[in-house]
Design a protein that fits this description.
alpha+beta, Multidrug-efflux Transporter Regulator, Chain: A, Domain 2, 434 Repressor (Amino-terminal Domain), 3 domains, 6-stranded antiparallel β-sheet, globular
């Protein structure tokens, strides 16, 4: 029996609930209309909020006959500004525009960026048009290529108080199931984040950069790989330190939200 806590559905369950085919769900994902999280076994998982979004996509696609590009534009326009509604939070609306500007300043084509980052030109184009959500791994690769940090993609806060109230934190939701809250503002030597990671959510691949990292896991579980050699399964109370130059990727392997403090030095986000 499904409990309140179990709010994710596999693709077969989502298809039955919505009365659509699994292939339609996969096609809409390829079109960039949604990005389900993945379970430990790499199964697609859909939250209740995503089911509601899928109902809207189904209506627009099958009844209104709106093309995928039109649906993506409508969904983007209707999405609540959860990442930048209040002062001190990063605004996601400028992501595509900022990435496009940085690419042009570097005199790079989408093909050249794709070759350097391993991200397809079509997906890079969708990111720049704000019709696709890049993973943390993708954002880190782009930041390294453009010689900047991830937060610069979203805009900077005007004020940098020493005391940061929860309501004043910069919040990034780079990919479904991952929420990052910046715990210190302004120019700092360390960059502390509070991560909230949904079951099955991942980094979206491996990434590396200069610096050092420290993780303290407060709730849930986290699997982290370093250089595809060392695997660590963290649980509440565990801590992990490693060199950022080691390629790292991670996943919430549990069935509940993972909460952790993640500190980078120097700042990379």
């Amino acid at each position: 029996m499904r409990t309140r806590k179990d709010v994710y559905y596999r693709i077969g369950e989502a298809a039955r609930i919505l009365d659509i085919s699994r292939s339609s769900l996969r096609n809409w994902e390829r079109m960039g209309l949604l990005t389900p999280v993945r379970s430990q076994g790499l199964y697609r998982l859909y939250s209740r909020a995503e089911l509601q979004k899928l109902r809207q996509i189904k209506f627009l696609r099958n009844i209104k006959r709106v093309n995928p590009a039109g649906i993506a534009a409508m969904l983007q326009k209707e999405a609540p500004n959860s990442a930048g509604a209040s002062a001190g939070k990063a605004k996601k609306e400028g992501l595509g525009k900022n990435l496009s500007r940085l690419r042009r300043q570097a005199s790079l084509t989408l093909t050249a960026v794709a070759k350097s980052t391993g991200v397809s030109p079509s997906f890079l184009s969708a990111i720049e048009r704000d019709t696709a959500n890049p993973s943390i791994a993708t954002l880190q690769k782009l930041a390294r290529l453009y010689n900047t940090n991830v937060l610069s993609f979203f805009g900077e806060a005007n004020n940098a108080p020493r005391l940061v109230k929860p309501r004043d934190r910069k919040v990034l939701t780079p990919n479904p199931g991952v929420r990052m809250e910046l715990l210190a503002l302004g120019k700092t030597s360390m960059e502390p984040h509070l991560f909230r990671i949904a079951p099955g959510a991942t980094s979206g691949g491996s990434y590396d950069h200069e610096g050092e990292e420290f993780i303290y896991l407060m709730k849930g579980t986290l699997e982290i790989w370093l250089d595809e050699v060392d695997r660590y399964e963290m649980s509440a109370g565990d801590s992990l330190y490693f060199n950022s130059s080691q390629a790292h990727r991670w996943r919430n392997t549990g069935d509940e939200e993972t909460v952790l403090m993640w500190i980078n030095t120097p700042p990379t986000f």
